Amino acid sequence: MDITTDKSIHISKNKVGLRNLVAKFIDQDKYHGILAFYHSEDEYQKDYRLSFISRQSSLDESGNLKTNSTDPKRYTFILGANQSCNTADKRFIELQKKKNIAVEDVTSAFSVSTLTKEFYTE
């Protein structure tokens, strides 16, 4: 999903608000997750944001509805002229190696815990 924001929105500082704009499109029928690109109509804001937003519901062992969703302050990257973009690039390269990509694959690829584990392993 490609979203152009108003000039007054600072993409680099606005994680939760931008996420919430897109989260409402997850219907859990056709869409369990969305990759959203946010860029500003302000030509002086050179950076943009890539966010992965997901929500899935299931029943637990007791029959209670359980909803899992991505954290509003994670699964998001600032990209563009002022950023290195290495982390997001590596994540997409890993995803491209898979034949069928599921929501769980994207969640794992962009997970902060996965990135932290890789950082300390290297």
Describe this structure in words.
By secondary structure, the chain is of the alpha+beta class. The chain has one domain (2-121). It is built from 4 helices and 5 strands. It has helices spanning 16-23, 86-96, 103-109, 112-121; strands spanning 2-5, 33-40, 47-59, 65-69, 76-80. Strands 1, 2, 3, 4 and 5 form a 5-stranded mixed sheet that branches. Strand 1 (2-5), helix 1 (16-23) and strand 2 (33-40) form a beta-alpha-beta unit. The radius of gyration is 16 Å and the shape is globular.
Summarize the structure.
The protein is of the alpha+beta class.
Number of strands: 5
Topology as a string of helices (H) and strands (E): EHEEEEHHH
Count the helices. How many?
4
Largest sheet geometry: 5 strands, mixed
Please bin the fraction of helical residues. 25-40%
Cα-atom radius of gyration: 16 Å
Distance between the termini: 33 Å
If you average the pLDDT, what whole number results?
84
Question: SS-based structural class?
Answer: alpha+beta
Q: Give unreliable regions as ranges.
A: none
Shape: globular
Counted up, domains total 1
Estimate what percentage of residues fall within beta strands.
Answer: 25-35%
